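This part of the workshop introduces the protein records we will be handling. The question running through the whole workshop is how a given chain folds. To make this concrete, we reproduce a full record directly below:
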Amino acid sequence: MAKIKKEVMSSKVYAALKDMIADYRFKPGARVNVEKVSRELGVSRTPVWEAVRRLEQEGLLKNIPNRGVFMAEMTLETAYELFQVRGALERLVAKLAAEHMDNRAFDKLSDCADEQLKVIEKEDPIGYSRLDFEFHSIIYKASRNAVLQEVLESVRMKMQPVNMQIMPILPRLYQDHIQILEALRAKDPDLAEKVFIRHNENILDQIRRDMEATARRKRESVLLKQGGFSRPLERT
């Protein structure tokens, strides 16, 4: 019985810490204070460390000896691959949700979209990310395909450490959401799929731009270290 209680406690702490990550409590690369987490959850450090080990295996946390526990920092290349997978799966979600979504889900989507506009006006990318997760989750649930929903939630959790420049495209992503909502309300599977494809392509385009900018900065840094020139030579 004691072992069962210990396993239940460990699972609850794991779920709680995972929820903190999903709620963007920790930025990519930020330190996760195990002592502080244990105090907040009202448990000893043992189940927290057990949760850390599980989340480390999932690629969400990194335990660095003599330094501590940190949120993982995902490369843009890995982020690109994850959004490719999400895009492929969401094409099916779009079709299924268009067939099954009810008025209650439509109301939730509409309310979520209204809140998104508010956080965009405040230029709050973290707030938008939370609402974006909620928006997509409502649609996943409306697909009424539990396996598909589980796979997409797993992909989404792996995206948590992504550190990309999302502010430049927030208005465009919001407009995508409005068009997704309209397509689903019209119960048009083909249109819903089409808008979802464009939505994910907008994100992939931004990641590509971020990768190009990162590569350019690295090249310039190497040139400067080698005594090369990253600017045109001045004429004498």
In short: Strands lie at 31-32, 61-64, 68-71.
